[in-house]
Amino acid sequence: MRAAAAGYQGQLRIALSDGITPPRFTALLAQCRQDEPEVDIRLYEVPLSQQIRGLHDDLYDVGFAQSAEVGEGILAEPAWSDPLVVAVPARHPLLTYKRIPLDEVLRYPLVMCDPQLCEGYGRQIARILRTVDAEPLVAEQVASLDLMLALVAAGYALALVGSSQIIACRNADVIGRPLAGRSPMLTTYLLRRDVEPSETLSRFIDRVSPIITDAPSHTPESTKEINS
């Protein structure tokens, strides 16, 4: 009723999990507002498990998360990917590396997202860490990317994040360095129920693919240049 009174002619309920990358999602929302200003967009920040339940229960129309492990009845389609980089405090000894070996990263404490709040992100990071024969020293688990990068800036620990997240934070005390070898990618997925989407949702999904192509390419090298 409130949406209709405000002049909206439709609604899209979007659930967000895992600290979705700001530049990509901001560009998508801006495109939606430009193309269909009459559609009321509601955003809900929730853990992945709650997002999946909400999609099943028709509380949300669509969602974004960093996991494709969503069970039956939910479709998970890749939306965009970011090269994984190491967030390093300024003047840290690892900055002597242009590309940091993962086993060198694991010699230092890491700050991680709370696995309950950032479940999909945690799964992707865990898979990457299992590629080396060393246990990470987790200094802190936090509820948000902002706090994670604040702890990095203060010199408490390193972090593993998407390159566009480093660029978006624009903190001179946080420097992004790619990992040695082929850079792993952090993938964000669009989640929705496995049913015929509404016309409004179909148009929203169609906008996601151009965002992947047109968004700036945040390569490890560009991250290094911006932050070094």
TrEMBL record:
CDD domains: PBP2_LTTR_aromatics_like. One of its GO terms (molecular function) is DNA-binding transcription factor activity. GO terms for cellular component: protein-DNA complex. It comes from the Bacteria. Residues 6-208 form the LysR substrate-binding domain. Pfam families: LysR_substrate. This is LysR family transcriptional regulator. It comes from Ectopseudomonas oleovorans (Pseudomonas oleovorans). The gene is benM.
